[in-house]
Amino acid sequence: MTIDEKREPACYASPPCLMHELDPAYGGIVDAQQRTDVMRWRKAERQRLITERLAIGDEFKRDADGRIAAFLEEALGDVSGQTVGAYWPVRGEPDLREFMVRINARGAQCALPAIAKSGAPMTFLPWAPGERSATDNGDIPVPSASREVAPDIVIVPVVGFDRACHRLGYGDGALDRSLAALSRKPRLIGVGYAQAAIPTIYPQPHDIPMEMIVTETGIVTAQHDGEGGQ
Length: 230
Hints:
Elements: H1 32-54, H2 58-76, E1 83-85, H3 97-105, E2 109-114, E3 123-127, E4 133-135, E5 141-143, E6 153-157, E7 160-161, E8 167-168, H4 174-181, E9 187-191, E10 212-215, E11 218-221
Parallel strand pairs: 1-2, 1-6, 6-9, 9-10
Antiparallel strand pairs: 2-3, 4-5, 7-8, 10-11
């Protein structure tokens, strides 16, 4: 399923700085200077998108978060017996805590990420409604349980996303380190608001595409050169 065709397509931001000189469809960094340009562009784009996300009104956000949760439940189907890694919302991210309560009631084991120290991979700790919490190295609430779990599905908040379902994150590499440390690769589902759509993040070899991106307007699946619009 793709974004509801009855809705208007997402409006993409124009690449700032010098990034318009690169081919939006390119598949990697050609040289050190281009890598520097990409990192500079990502930093500026990240700041712009977070600022726009923080400006979203409360009423719109509540409605959008409910829609995202509904599309997520549709995309995931029966999660009974599976471990679903989610997140505690910060910096205007979609709030999926009620979604977590619902899937927990239907037999899913929910888990939240925790980072013991800066630069370390995230681990996932089991979470259930009403459990006591502590805070991790990023001062974000995490389960107090010490037992780690391996998620079957990881729901990842995006700062931005492109047509190939690449995710623009916070730039700290925490997700990549964490996935590399897992014994098996989970399904990766990105979530964010439709306004976070951009033509490309100028992906580097280490950038891992999501299986899909879920927004308040629908489910975005990866599209590549020569394929139709979202």
